[in-house]
Fold:
Amino acid sequence: MADDTAPHAKAPARRQRKSIRAEAEFRARLAVLGVTLLDPYLGNSKYHRAICTKGHLCTLRPSYVKSGGGPCRVCSGTDPKTAEAAFRKRVDELGGVVLQWHGTQKPCLVRCTNGHECTPRPNHVMRGTGLCLTCAGQDTRVAEARFREHVARLGGAVIGVWKGTHTRINVRCVEGHETSPLPDLVFSRGSICRICGGRDPETAWGNFRARVEELGGVVVEPSWKGALSPHRVRCAQGHEGNPRPASVVQGGQGICRACGGTDPATAEAFFVARIAELGGTLLEPYRSAAHRHGVICKVGHKTTVTPLGMRSGEGLCRLCKGKVWDVFYVVQDDLNDVIKFGVTSGNPRPRLGDHERDGFDRVVRLHVGLPDDVAPWLERAIISALRDAREKSVRGREYYHVRALPLVLDLVDNHPAIRAAL
Structure:
């Protein structure tokens, strides 16, 4: 019998040791927090009276304090009386009046500075939100009235039940189409009808096919995949491509990259063939339609051309056309703190005179007789460097604030061809 009762006899001793450890941890935590305990230890889950570092009388439970909770509701702002006083003060600062208080987490009746009665939550107001949904344009009744007025102004009628700005509602447009737009999108787009606005899938599909036919092509894609998804088409020349309907209908993109000179394979073949036709030599591998490629014309001039430029009718050699571009200059408008850099050919006086009449009367740098493509290359390099430095042009393409001048001069003065000429 003695052996059977031994474990039960040890239980009180274990509970006592556990209680002693809990009390020690509790008192250690209070010492860290600077709190004075007024009651003897009553248990881990019992309330104890204490005084916080600011002198407030508070009640706390050891289990809550040991888990990281604050000892004083007044200091933490969770005391009802303190929270109410803070809320009333904040409402008064915002020009309102508290009519009814129901707690920090429940809507309280308030009259705003414009006389609207509203029900904000105190904890939201204390975190920085406003008092009145009506004044903020978020009141559902005001939003509904605004929406109905907007629909009527567009010649439509609301035929559904209003359920908020984020819920679709049935309307009938001026053409008689019934649709269900989101009120928020109606305000931002200005249209209530997907069909009239070209956003209806069937309508968009028909518009796309009609536009392709106008351009002499045929839509090969069997079904609609969306305005932003590529659709397979065949152009009048028999090339097949994958344009996006939104770009085609809006006029920003043709239906055939091969005919437009932007298809990599055909663009490279045309570019190489065109250079050979003009008696030139390509100095580097093909990279892209918009990239400048080094070439030598039939009389030996070394220059650069773009495949897109040649497809649009540009010649192979600007030097043969008299566009030497052997002068680089930097001028400054001291009155407006603006600099301008650029290139010209031959005698720079006419060009500098134009800039002088425009206010750029100080020549900061002027280099003439530059060889090959040094001047245009330097111009492009400076524009690229300024873009990397997040400097934006203040006017046109090559006009920048004077703070960009040190970077410009660093690139100019350290160019090998310019340093060799000095």
